[in-house]
Amino acid sequence: MVPIAKIVRFWADREPDRPFITQDGRTLSRAAFDEWSNGVAHELRARDVAPGDFVTIALPNCLEYFAAAFAIWKAGAIPQPVSHMLPRREIDAIINLVGPKLVLGDIEAATASLSRAEIANTPGNADPVPDVPIARYWKAMTSGGSTGRPKVIVDHMEAEVDPDGSYIGQPNNGVILNPGPLYHNAPFSVTFFALFHGNHVVSTERFDAETSIALIDQHKVQWVTMVPTMMQRIWNLPEETRTKYDLSSLQALLHLAAPCPPWLKENWINWIGPERVFELYGGTERQGVTIISGTEWLERRGSVGKVVPGFEMKIFDENGRECPPGEVGEIFFLPEEGRGTTYHYIGAEPKAKGDWESIGDLGWVDEDGYLYLADRRTDLIVSGGANIYPAEVEAALDAHPNILSSAVIGLPHEDLGQAAHAIIQVQPNANPTEDDLKAFLAEEIVRYKIPRSFEFVGYPIRDDAGKVRRSQLRDERIT
């Protein structure tokens, strides 16, 4: 095992001039990146970042993001990514919850910060920060939380890795593409593990359909992770555009984060081959994971696979009874090391039945243990691979002076999978417009959480206990 703080130097000692990161056309070698991130680590220490501290990263995908993350590990601290597009209210709520020593990014925050330009202009240093202990936790990802309040998921893996290890089928010393935002758990995890294993990572600030397949062709990318929205946007390119790029180097496309329409998955399987398409289901908490190949999927259409070694899975009904094969219930996982060994929350409590924990999804297994999802978390909206918690959006809407109550649901969307739709009961004689509400919400929540459609009603949405039946509201509107 090698501390993450020393992993870049580990690879630089072997091939110092090999490309380490290419971001939007600019490439840094292993040696050059190692020295730059050393310099940023020294700057963090000069700003009183100590081993074990949380450090918030609020940057877009950029070279400075990568330098920031490795500098945090090199200082013995814990990176805590957030979206750089969050409004001040959300940033402050996360900072109050986590208490980071420093925020890295160009955002207003009620704590000390280091800007992107300052990171970019930090001179390299051949010498690492001395005597750095291995951080107890390697990352702490942010989630909106089903209660509408932010929560942080602290990963219990220590900040050390096996450079010769394997991570969900990635190559070692190969080339991978990251088209996703690094403030989300999946892009963050797969991208940095690729770097830990000596890969050259090609990354973009924002996803673009044609650019992504052009980069696969240009850099002979072997492995990529996408969400179904990305897959659909690529598939929707004109056929002459989509097929003019050579994807023969691609060994695996792993999709995750949202349900993939069967027709879309089948088209990708037919395009690049079933042996190169994989799907992963699981949560940031790492209580359990399932994986399925395209070959298996063709035999079990709709399945998300079998639980991987190291985890157990059970389906329970509402009374805590284990469901037999074919019966829908809530999906629960248990790591082989036991409950609470893979993560802990800051700002929330896990949903558990004894030692078993759930992230709230419903599903069933067949006789051979293959999992099928009946529904993603009943309240959660998965839009373009991003999670939108209705309670958070409703809390922001209900703060508007002309709104009595609201309910936010996910409706089917051809491109995004689901789109947030707000049902609003307004005050008597009030006439807020969609533009008014969007402008109001822009000050309260990040852009992708703002509903894409609004519906105004003149009757109570919730019962006397304040409850709302979102599934019924959703079904009525779909019908």
Domain count, please report it.
Answer: 2
What is the mean predicted local confidence, pLDDT? 92
Low-confidence segments:
none
- The top-level CATH class of the largest domain is Alpha Beta
Let me know the number of strands: 29
Our estimate of the beta-strand percent is: 25-35%
- Named at the architecture level, the CATH assignment of the largest domain is 3-Layer(aba) Sandwich
Radius of gyration: 23 Å
Helix content: 25-40%
CATH superfamily of the largest domain: ANL, N-terminal domain
Tell the overall outline: globular
Euclidean distance between termini CA atoms:
55 Å
Q: What structural category characterises the helix and strand content?
A: alpha/beta
CATH topology of the largest domain: Rossmann fold
Largest sheet: 13 strands, mixed
Strand order of the largest sheet: 3-2-12-11-13-14-15-16-17-24-23-19-18
Oligomer: single chain
Count the DSSP helices.
14
Can you walk me through this structure?
This protein has 479 residues and is an alpha/beta fold. The chain folds into 2 domains: 2-371, ANL, N-terminal domain (Rossmann fold); 381-478, ANL, C-terminal domain (GMP Synthetase, Chain A, domain 3, 2-Layer Sandwich). It is built from 14 helices and 29 strands. α7 crosses α8 (228-235) and α8 packs across α10.
Primary descriptors:
Rossmann fold; four-stranded parallel beta sheet; 13-stranded mixed beta sheet; 2 domains; 479 residues; GMP Synthetase, Chain A, domain 3; 28% strand; alpha/beta
